[in-house]
UniProtKB/TrEMBL annotation:
Keywords: Membrane, Transmembrane, Transmembrane helix
Transmembrane segments: 6-24, 36-58, 64-84, 91-110
Top-level taxon of origin: Bacteria
Record flagged with keyword Membrane: yes
Name this protein carries in UniProt: Sulfite exporter TauE/SafE family protein
Species of origin: Fictibacillus norfolkensis
Length: 559
């Protein structure tokens, strides 16, 4: 409904309730008619602008339930001025309005079960192994933002603009950060009228430089009045319930669109469940809606990170209802606040699909063990909760950041954007490390179950390779990744190197094919007897690394 029409209707209704139709006095008919007309017009003139300004500034949905506070105020005033039977009727309206207000305010106390059911996740033990041939999207947002700011000279009329919100997505098969150029104030918007474009930067290559893409946008979050994209979306869909900030999404041709999640309340005006998105072309303002199942293929983050964070809160807190979340806290698990977007971190799987990662920890203070973690599909909102190996205690993201802080305490470096991966069968935290100026220094990997096993390197893939060696030296069982091809070879051993690590021995050996292999006595006990000139039959993972991980080995004469 048009905001002016909505304001007029609300103003008329308020005037009818506030103004007493009957009177204890008995004026002449003409005087009574004039007083009634004048008072109603005056009430409407006072009410309509207030309602219009309130809804225009707050951008609130224009549903009838949104006027509950006004209804309480208006019916109270109407009951106060009315007399006789009219007072009784308006008093009943006031009590009904008050009960509705109490119901809306207290809905959060009683709808926790509905919230939990709406956020319930499928459960698994562990995510699949990461393919070491791939490069994780691990360039931290703070570093990407710093690089974009230093490249802001590419923007025409630079003084008019500033860098907008940063988000990650896949564009034309590549993982990139996107940040729109936004107006830096009202007068800059008044003089500039349109923003000139947006920046892109690789999310996998820390050495890449930002690129400025020219694409004029009139409807943006930093525009004012009816050119503000949030207000424009509200104007197109006045009754929709939006949650989360508008996000910029780029199609494979480089054309930008602003999207925003919409849905419905869980009950009353409390809670939120996503149903779809609204998409606005920032160049001309064309706006469309899509249900979740119908969203365009180029959109990665249809479900806003704010929505996912809210769903995680429902899932972690309300397993046994509202009061348990405040007092007993049985089975309560708190979602981490270490994420990069609204307390969640966007990551991509091997198929290029985006998920939001969150780890959950205990509500007990001083405990840094992880109770589990979740991955939420950014296009559908469907989530999976991973319990991890219940026989082991996993360190949470905060614990990983504390290890990094202690590791580089003299240099005052800190970690950002910790994400849990399955590297070689080991739950592991991969975290970019930044200096005090926000520049990327290295990538740090630490085992979630065995924090004493950790490595760091200049690139994520170099760190992953070092991590494999650290796991093998630590006596761990290194599983092959899902995409590494398993091969067999027979040959003669030319050189052998053995290293005692804890209760096990790591054996590195060179075959006559001039390829090197590595195996732990934990998984292959007879490897400790390996010597030069032995003939062996080896099953290994063809990862392309300098030392290929052995999964099975037979030594001739020891079978």
């Amino acid at each position: 409904m048009n905001i002016l029409l909505f304001s007029i209707i609300v103003g008329l209704a308020a005037a009818l309730v506030i103004f007493p139709i009957t009177s204890s006095k008995k004026p002449v008919k003409e005087e009574k008619k004039n007083n009634l007309t004048g008072a109603m017009i005056g009430t409407i003139i006072c009410t309509v602008p207030v309602v219009f300004v309130f809804y225009y500034i707050t951008n609130l949905d224009r549903n009838i339930s949104s006027i509950w506070i006004l209804a309480i105020i208006v019916t109270a005033i109407g009951a106060f001025f009315a007399t006789g039977k009219e007072r009784l009727i308006k008093l009943v309206l006031f009590l009904v309005s008050l009960m509705i207000g109490i119901f809306i305010l207290s809905a959060g106390l009683f709808n926790s079960d509905e919230k939990y059911q709406s956020s319930k996740m499928a459960e698994k033990t562990e995510i699949e192994s990461f393919d070491e041939k791939e490069t994780p999207a691990s360039v931290p947002p703070k570093f990407a933002r710093n690089k974009m700011r230093k490249s802001f000279g590419q923007v025409p009329n630079t003084s008019f603009y500033e860098l907008g919100n940063l988000q990650i997505q896949k564009v034309d098969g590549k993982y990139v950060y996107i940040a729109p150029v936004e107006f830096s104030g009202l007068f800059k918007w008044w003089n500039g009228d349109v923003t000139p474009g947006y920046f892109t930067l690789s999310a996998t290559d820390s050495s890449a430089n930002p690129k400025f893409i020219k694409s004029e946008m009139s409807y943006t979050p930093s525009s004012y009045f009816n050119k503000n994209v949030e207000r424009h979306m509200r104007s197109s869909f006045p009754e929709y319930i939006f949650y989360g900030d508008p996000q910029l999404e780029i199609d494979d041709d480089g054309k930008p669109f602003y999207i925003r999640s919409y849905g419905e309340f869980i009950s009353a005006r409390n809670g939120f469940k996503v149903e779809g998105i609204v998409v606005t072309d920032p160049e001309n303002g064309n706006t469309k809606k899509y249900l979740i199942k119908d969203i365009p293929a180029f959109i990665d983050g249809a479900v806003s990170p704010e929505t996912v964070s809210l769903q995680n809160s429902y899932f972690g807190n309300y397993v046994h209802g509202f009061w348990n979340s405040k007092f007993g806290k049985k089975d309560v698990k708190l979602p981490s606040d270490e994420g990069t977007e609204a307390n969640v971190s966007p990551i991509f799987d091997e198929n290029g699909d985006m998920f939001y990662f969150t780890d959950f920890t205990s509500p007990k203070e001083g405990v840094d063990s992880m109770l589990g973690y979740s991955l939420t599909d950014a296009r559908t909102g469907k989530a999976t909760y991973y319990t991890g190996n219940l026989e082991e205690s996993y360190m949470d993201s905060e614990g990983a950041l504390e290890i990094i802080e202690k590791k580089f305490i003299e240099k005052k470096w800190d970690g950002e954007m910790p994400v849990l991966y399955n590297f070689y069968g080991e739950a592991s935290w991969l975290t970019p490390v930044l200096d005090s100026n926000g520049f990327l220094q290295n990538y740090f990997i630490v085992s979630a179950a065995n924090p004493e096993i950790s490595v760091y390197a200049n690139t994520p893939n170099a760190a992953i390779k070092q991590y494999k060696t650290a796991l093998q030296r630590g006596g761990g069982t290194v599983d092959g990744t899902s995409n590494a091809e398993e091969k067999q070879i027979s040959g003669t051993v030319l050189r052998v190197y053995k290293e005692k690590v804890g209760d096990y021995t790591t054996v590195s050996f060179l075959l006559d094919n001039r390829m090197s292999y590595i195996v732990s006595s934990e998984s292959n006990p007879l490897a400790i007897y390996l010597k030069e000139q032995d003939k062996v039959n080896v099953t290994y993972q063809n990862t392309g690394e300098a030392f290929l991980p052995v999964t099975e080995m037979k030594i001739e004469g020891l079978e």
